[in-house]
Amino acid sequence: MSFDIALFLVQDGLTNGAIYALMSLALVLVFAVTRIIFVPQGEFLAYGALTLASLEAGKVPGTIWLLAALGAAAFAFDLPAMLRRRAGRAVLRSAAWNLLLPATIAALVYALAGHGSNRLLQVALTCLIVIPLGPLLYRLAYQPIANAPVLVLLIVSVALHLALSGIGLFLFGAEGVRTAPFSDASIQAGGLLVTGQSLWVYACSVALMALLYAFFERSLYGKALRATAVNRVGARLSGISTVFAGRASFLLAAAIGVFSGVLIAPITTIYYDTGFLVGLKGFVGAIIGGLMSYPLAAAGALLVGLLEAFASFWASAFKEVIVFTLIIPVLLWLSLRARHDDEEEQ
Amino acid sequence: MRRTAGAYAVAAILLGLFAAAPAVLSDYWTTLLDYIGLYALVVLGITLLTGVAGQVSFGQAAFVGLGAYATAWLTTVHGTSPWLGLALGLAVTAGFALVLGLVTTRLSGHFLPLGTIAWGIALFYLFGNLEFLGGFTGMTGIPALTAFGIELRSARAFFYPIWLCVFGALLSIVWLLDSRSGRAIRALHSGSIMAQSFGVDTGALKVKVFVYAALLAALSGWLYAHFQRFVNPTPFGLHMGIEFLFMAVVGGAGHVWGALVGAALITLLKQALQSVLPQLLGTSGQFEIVVFGILLIAVLHGARDGLWGWLDARWSHRRPRRPIAAAPALPARPRPEDGAPLLEVRAVRKAFGGLVAVNDVSFVQHAGEILGLIGPNGAGKSTTFNLVTGLLPLSAGDVRFRGRSIAGMQPADIARLGIARTFQHVKLVAGMSVLENVALGAHLRGAAGVLRGMTHLERAEEDMLLAEAARQVERVGLGQHLHTPAGALALGTQRIVEVARALAADPALLLLDEPAAGLRHLEKRALQKLLERLRGEGLSILLVEHDMDFVMGLVDRLVVLDFGTKLAEGLPQEVRGNPAVLEAYLGT
User: Would you call B297 and A141 a contact, using CB atoms and an 8 Å cutoff?
Assistant: First the structure.
């Protein structure tokens, strides 16, 4: 292998690795706050990319129907308890969040879809449609059993992935899409051609990570989420609602997923089921960090990206095999490091 | 007894009817039943693994694939007998499962499922990319099985080997759960500390269960390959692994029969959905997985115990109880001589970073006495307790039991020497009867492993263990609760069950960790009386407690700790008058 090829592979690996790193951060975030192993994280990436592609093609994306349906379901689930408590204001608030907001977003998309091709507007609409799915899914799938054992939550996650990938096929069809790049520019550096889009990926990933860091270190909400991650009961006693913490972490995870989808869609063809594998590669990264440390998870994800790039050069057919088998030595290493294992959680 | 005979007769008739099914059913339904059997075989393994032992695997389909591909490759490429294919499939599967189980057993519970997801995907792509396994197109021309000179070519003929395996596996698991190893497996669900304290090697047991579940999957794969006579990677992917788990959860993951119910229900539902939904929605697509996903979430929200669990809750009180067989007593441990030093704690020290929780504490427990270790909250009592039982490593000092050092030994090895304990937060297996919980205490007095448990070749030993457990339940006065589920008892009674469980280990020393915590006055009195009676029978007891009143009238001697240091030692009335003790307790 020549030096040029190696450089090219490194660039390719870092581009994918940056996306995996974003995934792994979202996974660690959700796990720390809610103890949920969020297998469907990648679905947000696919939904984001495919929604943007629909808007680009001047169509109304099917995800608005999903948003409306989930909102209506959430309202229906809230209603009996609210009526029992005769909490009229709560009914109005739930209706505003779960019915009015999705309806407004849908109306906005209908009004704006097909008119003009302003890039920023399309990305903004994509965010408006897909990001609210995160808290809604938390409300419907996890909130009623928020205190269940980790393994039950994990099975729910896998079931949710199954449902979302089937819905994705229904909404978007089986064809893959690629969106227009943010920038056609490219820089010739030595023997290496650096595309503008991969620079976008690097810059946005770093910016997003910095933003997350600032959020958790500087803002009160961020600190509240961290407190919930450390001790749920203690956080509750200090007045932090675990429902709020759960929805907030899902909002963030969905946002990270959508951004990743928007960033990667010009580089890779995205199918309705692409997100799952991307999310799982983020997982391998997160597991390298023991599902605990943000920097280690990000570093692990970059490693996965690089490994994948080189594997696809040497043994392209076995690239997935190599990436996913990596988890065995990692688990072995984690297991040798673990001194004591008290899984007294029931 | 008549009732049992009647139950056997009913079972035999049902089984006979089932065996006649292929003769009356159409080809379509017979084939469907064959598939249900193939799936049920895998799901039975998941029931044991997930429902009973509390470990989750999404990778069972990959093990099915190993079993199928091993025989496909041997029989088509090398033309060997299918039986050799079975042997290879089982061997390869056992090897993979062993590695995966060993690397995850020491990690917390969610790493095994994540490992199995990753490995399920890896193996799927491996099957699809290996030339010699036919790539994604797969392998054809796998020979049919031959049994007693008959070629099993039709779905009708294949019905029998499949369901023979299913019922064999079912029986093996039912028998296993009703044995010494089975009780230990059922205890895994509620954390490993309790099981280890009674000598269960929890890590090894988890791996064994995982390997057995994988072997059942591989057996299903072998049958599948010779039934279909064709294999490709698709049915061994992750989605199928998820579906198997789904079957187990819907049927009732903790219930052996739930595996059959779940496999049948989901297979039939899938058939129905695949034919109805596309017509309903006007396009083709994988709508059944959307329904499955939502249904699974609904089941986990509303009925986590599955369909069989729901049925079982309505039936279980009618199930006949097996009477305790008269059996010879288990050999007992030689008793230490009264008054001889039994447990010597010598200048033990435990530091957590800069915090010294236990600071050079020494005391001696003599055989035949009740020694109380007391002190206010945070005095270091529980830490001292954990140092003696091996849950925490010592920073310095030595603990000697009957003259030999037990410092640095594992909890299971300490248990083997004759130290049994109870827990401050009661650790009983809620779903097991009082008898079974107590029998778990006698774990180290039996030797039958998983294989003998599955085949019920250990009945003589099992009868002795259960008879011993029943004796201990009687000894603590809970004879009327022998078959009550432990979770249904009041806290005070559960504490006494814990004492009986410790007694079943035939201990030379009984350690009680805050036995009076949370008990009402009358419950405390009952416990005091029991402990006095046990001392009368020659048992040595070390009691950690902070309830002065409970301790005062009961113990022979007291050791008082405060801030990790020994404050006083002596007879209760001496200690009561000690100004340092008064200050620590009353803060004057």
Answer: yes
Provide the pLDDT for residue A51.
Answer: 95
Tokens 């986590």 locate to B304
> Looking at the domain assignment, is residue A200 inside a domain?
yes
Q: What is the pTM assigned to this prediction?
A: 0.87
- Rounded to two decimals, the ipTM of the complex is 0.88
Q: Give the integer Cα–Cα distance in Å for B243 and B249.
A: 10
CA atoms within 13 Å, Cβ hemisphere of B2: 0
CATH topology assigned to domain B34-277+285-311: ABC transporter involved in vitamin B12 uptake, BtuC (1.10.3470)
Q: Copy the structure tokens of residue B264.
A: 């049948």
Residue A260, exposed/middle/buried by CB under 10 A (0-12, 13-18, 19+)? buried
Whether A327 and B121 lie within 8 Å, measured CB to CB? no
Q: Which residues 11-70 in chain B show a CB within 8 A of chain A?
A: 50, 54, 56, 58
pLDDT tens-digit map of A163-178 = 999 999 989 988 888 8
- Domain spans, chain B: 34-277+285-311, 341-586
Give me the domain span that covers residue A151: 25-61+113-206+218-272
Tell me the C-alpha distance between A155 and B17, whole Å.
Answer: 36
CA of B105, closest CA in chain A: separation in Å? 8
Q: Which of A205-209, B162-166, B212-216 is least confident?
A: A205-209
pLDDT per residue over B536-570, tens digit each? 888 999 999 888 888 888 899 999 888 888 888 88
Report DSSP state, residue B234.
G
What CATH number has the domain spanning B341-586?
A: 3.40.50.300
Residues in chain A: 346
Tens digits of per-residue pLDDT, B420-441?
999 888 899 988 899 999 999 9
How many residues are there in chain B?
A: 588
CA angle B176, B182, B188 (to 5 degrees): 145
